[in-house]
Fold this sequence. Notes:
Elements: H1 2-10, H2 19-26, E1 27-28, E2 42-43, H3 49-58, H4 61-67, H5 72-78, E3 86-91, H6 104-114, E4 120-125, H7 129-140, E5 149-154, H8 165-179, E6 184-186, H9 194-204, E7 210-212, H10 221-230, E8 236-240, H11 246-252, E9 262-268, H12 282-291, E10 296-302, E11 320-326, H13 329-338, E12 344-349, H14 356-365, E13 371-376, E14 379-380, H15 381-391, E15 397-400, E16 405-406, H16 413-424
Parallel strand pairs: 3-4, 4-5, 5-6, 6-7, 7-8, 8-9, 9-10, 10-11, 11-12, 12-13, 13-15, 14-16
Antiparallel strand pairs: 1-2
Helix pairs in contact: 7-8, 8-9, 9-10, 10-11, 11-12, 13-14, 14-15, 15-16
Amino acid sequence: MKRARQKAVLENEVPPTSQKSKKQRTCFSGSVSGESGSQPSVDWESLPHHVILRIFQFLPLVDRARASSVCRRWNEIFHIPDLWRRFEFELSQPATSYLKSTHPDLIQQIIKRHADHLQYVSFKVDSSTESAEAACNILSQLVNCSIKTLGLISTAKPSFMNVSKAHFASALTVVFVNSKSLSSIKIDDTPLDDPSLKVLVANNSDTLKLLKMSSCPHVSPAGILCVADQCHGLKELALNYYILSDELLLALSSEKHVDLEHLRIDVVSENPGQVEFHTIKKQSWDALVKHSPKVNIVMYFFLYEEEFDAFFREETPVTHLYFGRAVSKAMLGRIGMNCPRLIELVVCANGLQPLDDELIRIAERCKNLTAMGLGECEVTCRGFIEFVKMCGGRLTQLSIMEEVLIPDNDYSLDRLHLEVSKHLGRMWFPDMMPTW
């Protein structure tokens, strides 16, 4: 009986019940204060249509499916298109993941009844190849879709990279060809290739505004140039540094393009010591900023110290900098000299030399700096207070690990937080754990 009941819920069928039991489920008596008999009964079945729909929108998928078995009217509301515009397919293998998974019967029901209603869709997979292949199989069946946003998310290692390129490209092509209204795509760490990008822009060039595709080794600079040349409404772009070039920046700076708002660049060392990073010319950066003066240029660095040589030797219009590994004093000195547009800086690690001079130079020259985070670094209390004093109240975020700060003859840690709080204009304490 239990198994039959679960099957009925998943298939959204109303299980056979007596009128009495049905009435017991749909009608409840009592006042708001909990006193029985003081108010007339509340007939949940007669709630206005829009109220039930709103309640369903707040329910988790499993609870929504259970609620749909209460009565025929609730079952009909369960299938209203508004409830299926936004959906996340959770695909995981019980043997390799603790994550919950969308039931296969429900997936097939969605494909059969709601494929043309889906608009904001994401696929969350675990580290198994089977989960990524299951996502591709679902994508291949969305032939009547009108998707606006699409996200492919690997919760562990990038399992989409284990799917054959032909299978992945074929699945994406179905969505790219049939949607014709894609505005936002997040497909990091996937076997996306240049031909797939050409299909994308051929069918969605007028609507595409956001494209995140970092760590896609099968995409070449030519593929990105194709996007830049045809998607004139592109607002946000995320890619690997190896694809970035002077030619691409100039293409994004041409008159036919609207202003780019966000450019994210991941600078990652796959083979330490074996890759020599190229340098982008200052003229190319200047052209981009002249065309899009408010563009945020975000750079994430995961390099070893000896691999930074190509960066920040001349002025670079970066606004947000994140260093996931140790970065040298010399590199931080270059940032202070050559990054005048800097808004946010996060340094996860450095050597054992105090960074007082480097921070003060950054405070002097980076007039837009509003957020700072320091992890395994060292700064004297006096140097840190001087940095805060120069930045003043514009530092809206200041996350500094307590062990970063070195007490000196002028300031103890107890006195430091009072002095820093005074210059910030709000109460501040060092962090026990990083908050970035």
